[in-house]
Design brief:
The structure is a homodimer. By secondary structure, the first copy, chain A, is of the alpha+beta class. Chain A is built from 13 helices and 16 strands.
Chain lengths: ~500, ~500
């Protein structure tokens, strides 16, 4: 029988063949994913410069494609950092090329989404993508690009330079794609709504194919501290990484090597660790052999006294901004927010933020309304597989006198330098024990506070009822007693009423 | 503020950074994934030659790594096709290089798993992989390899050639990796058990780190027809594919182009389609411009009269083999199997096979025991996200007088040239409407048959009871009547009993 034949395919080709794993499963889902990926790149580009994002998205009808699908043109404009011209072709036309391969929090993590959207547009409509960008300098650059999928290289079809008279800064991307907007619409609108919730400092405008305008105006211009790039934490290290560090290091002894390449390792920690691992502090890291590198990795994981990662590489929303965002979109009767301290899984720092809202615009259903976010991205698919859903389901709610049929919304935001997504499509977060524990703790905290509110509300309600009875009958009794005693002046009932009141008058 | 810096990473580097998406999430899961990927490559290699697979897997303890993990050596030997020596280094040391990028059914679909296992071994233990292989010719080749992850290239550390005196054919792969076998054990044993169930023609041997031997002996040497490589079906075509075909085609007119490159397009279909699409049959495909290619793609999808794909590129198990496999492992009281006709989603052919087993070794639980398989691979994780689980949960079981607390096992096997996995880790199948429908239809069919069995069983049971009563009292009545009538001979009751019997004696 014939022998197997072997061949090599490019990264572009791999994702072209397996676009399901990036979420591009069908015409409805694909149009959602395309919009989301481009918008998230825009948000990252503005935030990196600490500019409140202004993002304009237009989806317009171009032609009928098949009985169920249409060709649309997607245009996204932002006021972000802009892209230097020499990077533009590869940034949009080469898979596994990008600015996201850094140890800091970003919406994009795979450096794949924007390109996959463009690639999807190309394979469904065979039209080029137009990219216009300026970093705010003298010139604006425009490119007309396609992707050579088999070679994973951009093809530059046209390139224009114009003078940037108004010092415009930002990026405009425009391409066509096949999709099913009618079916995707609810998710897309929900996506914008939830994005507005956790990015309350952003202006988002969406014009849909029918010309309907959806506008989400920022509630604040305060922005969270942007994340800083960080070094790897000793607990998250593997042999490959050590190998790479040994190759590039300029340090000539192990003490400096540890201090210079690892997060939160200072002089004393380095000395103590080297003693623990029986490594000579003056040893040259370049001289480490295979076995020594493996042992170093194992010892880094075993050593108990490394400091936990600090959160400077993270950019959580903060309790104030989260409160503002949720209040703006849900307008609840009661709202509690809670931010956990930074924690870590496999050496990656992460922070859980949680909000619990009651009443207002929240509908009563058979279950809680759950909003899931990761690095300020709303997660809208596969809820039941997500760690937050599992924690919420496993919770003993009766303890908190809370039941799922109350009008309660739970907002979970997990931010990390590396969100443990289960799929490239960023639908849900995997069930890491450390993440699970933090989500559960945050949930207990907000549940406790909601319980206080509900208990207090019940007391106030009872009290109102009790006072109501007093204030109904006391005057009558007083009147009757006065008449009975043959007196003229009815005694002061207000004093009496106040004496039985349990809460301040302003609360009743 | 600083501008973003851009960089390119290799495919190897991408998967190294994002190994979660290939299922390598933690030390327990990773050891499971590593074994599974290597075993599946071995099964594919034997089946491609239509040789009943003989696979020997040994996992041995090497050293303690961290408090929770150990270093293991994994060795897998097979009697498969063997790999020609020039392909060996890249087949094990280069991501996105392989023999799986074909339009036919195979266990491997991403051409990624085996390499990811080797890569994982390297980054956790920094040891090379040893590969020995022969295609049965005069020589046996041995390689000692590592992966240059940053460049995505194999590094050949050593290469040996020996004479193949005994005409051995197969592949041996051996590498070390860090893992947590104790925690992974139940899943690994379950994996072998279920693999044996849908590969009843395979011998599987597993020796675990404690030296325990698990042996699964083949129940048959009959093998299903191996899948044939096929051409793309017109309904599954996109612009990129058309573009590639136009580039490589040797046909100079559209009629030949369609007949020569598409699955189930013959002379008449080609003519009719070209008429439908208003394309001149003698047009040279190389002369198609962008717009014409896009229109061609859209028309291919619109045209209703293409024949459905045939199943020659698929290799389902078949009802006999499925029955043998399930009977062997579950030994049920009742077993029904059903194979659906080939169907198609997005131009990819697929077949659903289903078995329903009752009683025997199947435990009574609160829910059905579900075995999920895709291209003869057991799927053991994320059951609740799988299309089969959803269909089974949504079914109205009361209609079939079946309840989830009965000892019932449901076996679902989906085979396809392209199984719509949701993750590279091949944990579950996404919810495509066409797949869902086929699973539901197969389920209804086996449920109906089980219902007949259960109803019949109930009748038989009732009948037994009824006959029991008759045979208890009839002799007494006969005796009494005989005495009363003053006769000597008691009448023949057996005749009477038979006359009220509803089912044959052999059944009661």
């Amino acid at each position: 029988m014939a022998q197997a034949t072997f061949e090599e395919i490019s990264a572009s080709d791999f994702f072209y063949r397996n676009r399901d794993i990036a979420g591009l499963t069908n015409p409805s889902r694909s149009i959602f994913v395309a919009i989301r990926e481009v918008v998230e790149n825009s948000l990252d580009a503005a935030e990196s410069q600490r500019i409140p994002p202004d993002i304009y998205v237009r989806l317009s009808f171009e032609a009928e494609a098949t009985p169920d699908t249409q060709i649309y043109k997607l245009r996204v404009e932002d006021n972000g950092s802009g892209i230097p011209p020499r990077f533009i072709p590869s940034a949009f036309g080469q898979v596994l090329y990008g600015s996201k391969y850094k140890l800091k929090q970003a919406r994009g993590t795979f450096g794949l989404g924007g390109k996959m959207a463009v690639l999807y547009g190309q394979i469904t409509t065979h039209q080029p993508v137009f990219v216009t960008s300026s970093t705010g300098q003298e010139k604006i650059y425009s490119f007309k690009l396609m992707i050579d999928i088999q070679r994973n290289k951009p093809i530059i079809l046209d390139r224009k330079v114009i003078i940037n008279k108004e010092n415009w800064r930002g990026t405009i991307i425009e391409f066509t794609l096949e999709g099913d907007y009618l079916r995707a619409m609810p998710k897309i609108i929900e996506y914008f709504k939830q994005t507005a919730m956790v990015n309350p400092y952003a202006n988002l405008t969406f014009v849909d194919p029918k010309g309907r305008l959806y506008k989400f105006i920022r509630a604040t211009t305060t922005m969270p501290e942007p994340p800083k790039e960080t070094m790897p934490h000793p607990y998250g290290v593997d042999v490959e990484l050590l190998q790479r560090l040994v190759q590039i290091t300029e340090y000539s002894n192990m003490a400096d090597f540890l201090k210079g390449h690892f997060h939160r390792v200072g002089e004393i920690t380095a000395q103590k660790f080297l003693e623990f691992a029986s490594i000579n502090p003056s040893k040259n890291p370049k001289k480490l052999n295979h076995e020594e590198i493996v042992r170093l990795m194992q010892n880094l994981k075993k050593y108990k006294d490394f400091l936990p990662p600090d959160a400077s590489c993270l950019s959580p929303l903060g309790e104030e901004l989260l409160k503002a965002g949720v209040a703006k979109e849900l307008n609840p009767e009661y709202l509690v927010v809670h931010q956990r301290k930074p924690s870590t899984y496999a050496g990656h720092p992460f922070i859980v933020e949680m909000a619990m809202a009651y009443g207002g615009n929240i509908p009563k259903r058979n279950n809680f309304v759950i909003y899931r976010f990761a690095n300020k991205i709303p997660l809208l698919y596969d809820e039941a597989s997500d760690v937050s859903y599992r924690v919420i389901s496993a919770m003993n709610w009766r303890r908190y006198k809370v039941s799922p049929d109350m009008p309660i919304a739970i907002v979970v935001h997990i931010c990390s330098t590396k969100v443990p997504y289960k799929t490239v499509g960023k639908e849900f977060i995997s069930d890491r024990p450390e993440v699970r524990r933090e989500v559960a703790n945050a949930l207990r905290e907000v549940a406790r506070q909601l319980q206080h509110f509900l208990t207090r509300q019940e007391h106030v309600h009872m009290e109102k009822k009790r006072l109501g009875i007093f204030s109904k009958y006391l005057p009558k009794i007083a009147q009757f007693s006065t008449t009975l005693a043959g007196k003229d002046r009815v005694p002061d009932i207000d004093k009496l009423l106040k004496s039985v009141q349990k809460y301040g008058a302003e609360e009743s």
